[in-house]
Amino acid sequence: MTAKRSITVIVNGECLTGEAEPRMLLADFLRDELRRTGTHVGCEHGVCGACTIIIDGDAVRSCLMFAVQADGAEISTIEGLATNGEMHPLQKLFSEHHALQCGFCTPGMLMTAIDLVHNSNDHSPGAIRIGMSAALCRCTGYVGIIDAVMEYARQVHGDAAVTGDETGGGRNDG
Amino acid sequence: MKPASFDHLLPTSLHEALEMLNTHAPDARPLAGGQSLVPMMNFRLARPTVLVDLNRISDLAYISDAGDHLAIGAMTRERTIENSGLVRTATPLLYDATLHIGHLPIRSRGTIGGSLSNADPAAEYPATVLALDATLVAQSVRGERTISAAEFFDGVMTTTLEPDEILTEIRMPKAPPGSGSALVEISRRHGDFALAGVAAQITLDGNSVTDIRLAACGVGPGPIRLAESEMILRERGLSDDALAAAGGAAAAATDPDGDVHATAAYRRKLAGVMTKRAVGKAAARARQSA
User: Fold this and answer.
1) Which of A78, A79, B144, B149 has its CA 20 to 30 A from that of B244?
2) CA distance B120 to B133
3) Last residue of some domain: A55, A80, A105?
């Protein structure tokens, strides 16, 4: 066992300090040490996307980073989306489009979608499909999720931006 | 599913990192983006006792125009490469390869140096640097050396880097004007490792092939340069017959293992199909840009 270190992060605008051994995953640090349990832990090897959070502007897998690596970082999680008890527009759209059933994948879905819609230049339906393939859902069959994210992209960028290629621009071709 | 205990060292300069690695080799591992090493640690397939974390060494993240090539720092994130206009115009094959790597949140952290040093047989960057004859720069406390891509890979997840060395820079030759390139692959789901993939860069003069570079991933212990297929296409052009022969030669050059995802025979067949598709797509792009 290696000695614990003091780690300070800004989570959804709040400066929080906790202790972590070097081997503690960032996802576990958020949940077990900082008690921010909105971020879910699924596969723990970067495949399912449930633990996806936004660090310094980019969506990342919090199961593939150690807490010690995040010292000083600015983190956004699902807990920071709602303001004053009012759901974030993307959360409302997930509700309206029945984009969740058990809800386990939803924290990762939302954080993936936020990065995708706000930081990518390509808002074609195909690009959104490929982008959202970063997170797995085993309940809904994805149609509601894609509909919700596309509508969110329309809200943010306008209807004209969310048109065109349905296939992902040949990104998944053979 | 939790890593074994290790010590975490956080150098802020390359010099400091090399000293740390030298002190703790061979039990220390450099930690780049961690998108392969951390899952392996979570599964305890890897149990380094010391991690030398390169993520705070800002000097190792850059993309610069160096005349006939791009010099890319080993800690440059895949997402940065994907969004680089310079990469897209100067080394379009590298751009194409990047789009096939995992998913956006993986590319947010993953680095070009980490992917190459990890040398996963199915990974896209090893095939890309092999196809383009890129030069890799490694440093240790003993000094700096350059390694050709052909000499860098040394079997499954193994490179010719010494335990005290860190890959620091990748020198990617620029694509010749009028050339076209493509990386195509087949995977069960988008973002999964390729069952088979081929990277192609081609320069045409009318219908004849003046330069062609091909390398495959996912179908052997490491990336495989498809020299025989290149020769066939250089000599015979892009006729259907020549493409079929090049595909056959590519399949013959591979050495795949079968696993739960696909049999060896299927992967070998795919190598031929991917070769034909990659050449076709690269040639179409070459004609567009000519």
Assistant:
1) B149
2) 18
3) A80
pLDDT (tens digit, 9 = 90+) per residue, B14-71? Answer: 999 999 999 998 889 999 999 999 999 999 999 999 999 999 999 999 999 999 999 9
Domains of chain B and any CATH numbers: 7-53 (3.30.43.10), 58-171 (3.30.465.10), 180-289 (3.30.390.50)
Number of residues written out for chain B: 290
Pick B103's closest partner by Cβ from A23, A134, A173.
Answer: A134
Q: How many domains does chain A have?
A: 2
User: B105: which chain A residues are within 8 Å (Cβ-Cβ)?
Assistant: 49, 52, 58-61, 112, 115, 134
Do A74 and A93 fall into the same domain? Answer: no
Distance from CA of B205 to the nearest CA of A (A): 26
B7 and A27 Cβ atoms separated by less than 8 Å: no
How many CB atoms neighbour CB A5 within 10 A? 15
pLDDT digits (tens, 9 = 90+) for B81-105: 999 999 999 999 999 999 999 999 9
Listed residues A56, A80, A104: the one ending a domain? A80
Parallel/antiparallel/unpaired status of strands B28-31 and B63-65: unpaired
Question: Which residues sit opposite A16 in a β-bridge?
Answer: A9
Phi, psi of B214 (to 5 degrees): -135, 135
CB contact under 8 A, B104 and A171: no
Written as six digits, the tokens of A12 are 């959804």
Chain B residue with the nearest C-alpha to that of A49: B105
Nearest-CB residue to B190 (from A2, A22, A172): A172
Partner residue opposite A44 with nearest CB, options B42, B53, B190: B42
Region of B244 (left: φ > 0; alpha: ψ -120 to 50; beta: rest) is alpha
